[in-house]
Amino acid sequence: MKKRVVVTGLGVVSAVGNSLPEFWNSLIEGRDGTKEITVFDPSAYRTKIAAEVIHLDTEAHFSKKEIRRLSRCDQFGLIAFREAWKSARLNQNSHDNERVGVVLGAGSGGILSVEKYFRDYYQGAKKSSPSLLISYSLATTTDHIAIESGLKGPRTTTATVCSSSSASIGVAYDMIQMGLADVMVTGGSDSLCEVSYSGFSSLRLVDPENCKPFDKRRQGLVIGEGAGILIIEELEHALKRGVPVHAEFLGYGICADAYHLTAPEPNGEGVERVIRIALSHAGVSPEEVDTINAHGTATPFNDIAETRGIKRVFGERAKAIPISGIKSMVGHCLGSAGGIEAAAAVMTLETGIIPPTIHYEVPDPLCDLNYTPNQSIKKNVRVALSNSFAFGGNNVCLVFGKYLNCK
Amino acid sequence: MNHRVVITGLGMVSSIGVGREAFWENCLRGVSGIKPIQGFDVSSYRSRLGAQLPEIDFKAFIKPANLRRMDRIGKVVVSAVRLAIDDSGLNLKEEDSGRMGISIGTGLGSSDTVDQFFRSLLKEGPLGAAPLLFQTAVPNAITSHCAIEYGIKGVNITFSHKESSTEMAMTFAYHLLKEGRAEVLFAGGGDELSEPLYHVYSMLRALSPGRGKGTEGMRPFDQDRNGMVLGEGSGILVLETLEHANKRGAKVYAEMAGAGLSGSTDGLLRYDLKGDSIARSMTLAANDLQTVDYISAAANSTPDLDGGEARAIKKVFGKQAKELSISSLKSMLGEFDGSGGIRACGLALSLFHGIIPPTIGTEHLDPRCDLNLVLGQPKKKEIRSALLNGCSNGGSNISLWFKTYREGNTNK
Q1: In whole numbers, what is the pLDDT of chain B averaged over residues?
Q2: pLDDT of A124
Q3: How far apart are CA A227 and CA A87, in angstroms?
Q4: pLDDT tens digits, A255-264
Q5: Which listed residue (A73, A95, A162, A281) is catalytic?
Q6: What Cα–Cα distance (Å) separates residue B104 from each residue in A142, B157, B167, B185?
Q7: Is B267 touching A (CB cutoff 8 A)?
C-alpha cells in the first residue's frame, strides 16, 4: 500500500523574490528577473545577463562567521529551508528527528567558492583559502541543512544537474515509502558560477536578451539561480500535527532518452515516456491533468521535443492544457530549477492561478500548444505536472494533486 | 506485492584487477592497489600514495564512435557496465529497454574534466572555453554515457553524496525493483583520482598522514591510523527481480534484502563520531540481525570513522560482535566516493563463495576497535547474511543487507 504524501512547507529564493509570497506574486504578475550579472564580471562573455538573486539580506540570516563559511548556494538553500520549515510549523518538538531526512538536488553546488580558490591557486596571485574548498562536494548544502536542524533521517544528494531537484523530490518521496522517514526536506539550491555560465555559453545555448520559451524568436536559456525547498510529509503525520496541506504529491517518473549527451531526443519520445511513467506511478489518467509546468528552457530543440512529447501523451486535448514556462521569469536555475518549479506547481494547485510564459509574442508552428502567454489565468486545477529534463536525456516528471480529504 | 531482488552480474574496474576473476583473485590474496602516485607531481604534498587504475585498453569494452566522446571516468564506468552485462549473461536485445535502468553514485563524475574546462576558461577566456569538455563535466555524464552506449531507456539517476553516494544508488535501485518499477537495474558507482581532487583532499587535510605523524598508508581500525589514501575505479552490479532472473535462467550471486539510511550531525566534515547513526542504519537495513555473519566495513583509516563504526557494530551486535567477521576492502582499494560498487561486488562474491577477503595494512588493532577483523589470510566461512556500510563525512550513513541466495526462502 502506497503511503499518501503531502506538501506541508515551501520556501523559495529566486531572481523574482526571496520568499515564497514575493516569488509567487512576481510569477502571477509576469515579472522578469533577468538583469546584468554582478556575481562575476561578465564583460568578456558573449552574453551578460542572468536571472540573479538580488536584495538578499544575508546578514539578517547569518552571522559574519557563517557568511565566510557558507557558499552562495548554501546561503540560498538555508534561507529557503528556514522558510519552508517554519511554514510547515516544524520546530524542535514537532517530530522525531531520526524520522526527518534531507534529499536535495545539486547542479553547480558551491563551485562559485571553489572557482575563487582555484583562480587564485592557478594564477598564483595570492594564497588561496582552503576553507573555500569545503564546498567542493555537491553534498555540502544538504549536509548544512541537516546539521543546522539536527535532522538524523536519511540523507543524500542527486546530481543530474538540470533535473536534479525534481529527481530529489522523487527520491525523498521514496524515502517515505520505504518507511525510513515521516518528513523529508527536499528540492534544491544552486548559484551562478563561471563554470556553468561559460559552459552553456560555449555550447551557444544562452539567449543574449531574455528567455522566450516556445516563442519562435527563442535563442536559448537565461541562467538563473536560487533555491526551492519543499517539506513533504506522510499524510497521517501531517494530520496528527494538524498542519495545513498545500497539495498532495502523487508520484513521479524518471527515465532516459539514451540519445545524446546534450541534445534531447527530437521526436519527444523520451518526454512522452517519462510523463506516462509518472502518470502511471501516480495512478492518474491523462484526462485529469489540468496544467503542466514545462521544462521550457527556450533552447530551440528542447521546446519542440517537449511540445511533441506532450502531444504524444495528451493527443487532441494537449491544446486545452495550459502550460507554464516560468524559466522566462526565474531563468534556468539548473540544480534548483525542479524545486522552484515544483513550488510553483504546488501554488497553482492551492490558489487556482496558472503563471504565464512571458516574452511570448511570435508563435512557432512547431510549438503549437497553449503556453499561457504573458498573462496568468485562473483555473480550478486538480492535477499539475512539473517537467524537468537534463543533459544526457535525464528526464523527470512530477505529479502533484489538489489535496482532498478522501481519495 | 514485493519482488525479491537478486544480484546476477558483477563488473569491476579496480586498481587490483579489471573484471571479476582478476579482482577476486587479488582481493583474496590481499593485494594492495596502493602505490606512489603516477601521472602528476605530488612532491609539494605531504602525501605520495594513491590506488590508481592500471592502463586499460578501453577499445575492448566500448564502441569506437562513442569512445571519442568520453573522458577517462566515463570510459571506466561504461567499461564496468560492459563487464557486468557480460558477466550476467543478459542479452540486451531481448530486454525491454524501458524496464532497464541505471543508478550511479559518484563524487563528482569527472573532477579532471571540470578542472580542464576551468583552466581553459582562465587561459582562453569565456570565448575560448571548450564546449566538448563542458558536456562531460557534468556529474551525470557518466550515467548518460552508459544509457547511450547500451540503449538503457528506463530509470536514469546519479547520486553525489560523498562516501555514501554509491550505497544510495544501490538503495534506490533496490527499492524500485522491489516495487516492480523496473526489471533490471545497473547499480553502482565510480570515481577517478585526479590531480585537482588530490589537491582538494590534501588541502582539507583528509589524506594520510594528515596532521599526525607516522607513515602514510591505509590501515583500517589500526591504532596508528592517520587518514585515508585516495583510490579510484568503478564497480557495477546487475540487480534484477528474481522472477526476471529465473525466467532467463541467470546465475544468482546473492540476494539484496534491505537498506537502512540515517544521518549524523556532528559537523560538515565529521563522520558519525558516536556511531549512533551507523548503528541505526544497520538496524534498519537488516530485519534479522542474528543471521549477520560478515560486515564489509566503511572504515577508511580515519580516526573518526573507524572508531564510530566499531562502536556502532558493538552497540548493535553486543556479544555477537565478536563472532562477526569484519573486513574493509578499502584497505586494498583506497577510499573514493564511488567505492561502494566495487565493495558490493566483493561482498556478493563473499556470499557466493563463502570466503571473506582480508583487511591489509592493519598491524596493531586499536583496542577501542576490538572487532573480529579478518587479517592476513582470507577466511572461509558460511555466510548467511552480510552488511555493507557506506558512511560519509558530513553524516549520511547507509547500510545495505545482502543474503546468501536460496531458492524459495521468502523475503519477509
Answers
A1: 96
A2: 83
A3: 16
A4: 999 999 889 9
A5: A162
A6: 18, 6, 9, 10
A7: yes
* Shared domain check, B271 and B235: no
Q: Which residues in chain A have their CB less than 8 angstroms from residue B108's CB?
A: 136-138
For an interface test with B, the pick among A127, A178, A223 (most B C-beta atoms closer than 10 Å) comes out as: A178
Contact between residue B170 and residue B180 where contact means Cβ atoms under 8 Å apart: no
Nearest CA-CA partner of A402 in A359, A362, A346:
A346
Sign of CA dihedral A70, A73, A75, A78: negative
Beta partners for residue B207, in sequence order: B228
CB atoms within 10 A of CB B85: 19
Report d(CA A136, CA A159) in Å as an integer: 13
What DSSP letter does each residue of B149-172 carry, written as one string?
HHT--S-EEEE-BTBTHHHHHHHH
C-alpha cell at A119: 583562480
Each residue's pLDDT tens digit, B67-117: 999 999 999 999 999 999 999 999 999 999 999 999 999 998 999 999 999
- pLDDT score at B411: 47
Is residue B361 within 8 Å of residue B300, measured between CB atoms? no
- Residue B408 counted as domain residue: no
Q: What share of chain B has pLDDT > 90, as a percent?
A: 93
Cell, residue A89: 510549523
pLDDT above 60: residue B25: yes
Query: Does CATH place domain A5-241 in 3.40.47.10?
Result: yes
**What pLDDT sits at residue B409?**
56
Residue A84 has pLDDT above 80, yes or no: yes
Q: Give the mean model confidence (pLDDT) for residues A257-283.
A: 95
Q: Where are the domains of chain A?
A: 5-241, 252-400
Among the four given CATH numbers 3.30.930.10, 3.40.47.10, 3.40.228.10, 3.90.1150.10, the one describing domain A252-400 = 3.40.47.10
Q: State the amino acid at position A203 in one-letter form.
A: L
Residues of A in contact with B126 (CB under 8 A): 44-46, 194, 197-198, 201-202
How many angstroms separate the CA atoms of B289 and B244, rounded?
Answer: 28
Instruction: Report ipTM (2 d.p.).
Output: 0.97
How deeply is A315 buried, as exposed, middle or buried, from its count of CB atoms within 10 A (0-12, 13-18, 19+)? exposed
Residues written for chain B: 412
Distances (CA, A) of A363 to A31, A215, A299, A311, A370: 21, 5, 15, 17, 10
DSSP B52: P
- Residue reference for cell 561486488: B345
To the nearest 10°, report the CA torsion of A192, A195, A201, A202: -170
